[in-house]
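Model: You mentioned two targets. I'll fold them one after the other.
Researcher: Yes, keep them separate.
Model: Target one:
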Amino acid sequence: MKKQPKTIAFICVENARRSQMAQGFAESLGKGKVEAYSAGSRPSSQIDPLVIEVMKEKGIELSSRHPKGLNDLPPVEMDYLVTMGCEETCPAVLAKKIIEWQIPDPKGKLIDEVRRIRDALEAKVKVLLEEVDS
């Protein structure tokens, strides 16, 4: 019998940078083991163009995506909720396990700093996927 994929929601403020990158990595690296979502407590109007650019460097295409709010998440209890500075609104999402990642917001940063944040997110997603798979 095939295992149901674990659900992961990545939440930040604008859903324009960190949570979008984390979702992209989880989908790419999770290979069907996870269903990844992302949202923001106060969604922006578009994904940061630098985020789209640095994710393309990793072979992950985000240009067709758009920021989503917490109400856009499926109305189910997530297996994992990963928050990244979304203030008091994140715990409003039901989850079996809540994890807070201290990742700086790349908003307004130069591309090299956005790349460093992207790489930190990739490393954290890899560790999370190992936990999900265990």
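Model: Target two:
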Amino acid sequence: VVIQVSDTGRGIDPEALDRVFDPFFTTKPLGKGTGLGLSICYGTVKEHGGTITVRSTPGAGTTFTIRLPVPS
């Protein structure tokens, strides 16, 4: 199963892209975010045997792709 979620927002800066799944990583100001959302998503997808990837272009948006195995 492949699930893609895309937006046409401001995108993710290239220097932040490699860290978006890291626990407690956030680009928000202090007190405005915990940086756990994508880390939790990553862990949940991994626990189900899948993968999650991100592709982003600054100024043009971001796409997250989740791939999950189909049980036989």
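Researcher: Noted. Anything on target two?
Model: The longest helix spans residues 37-47.
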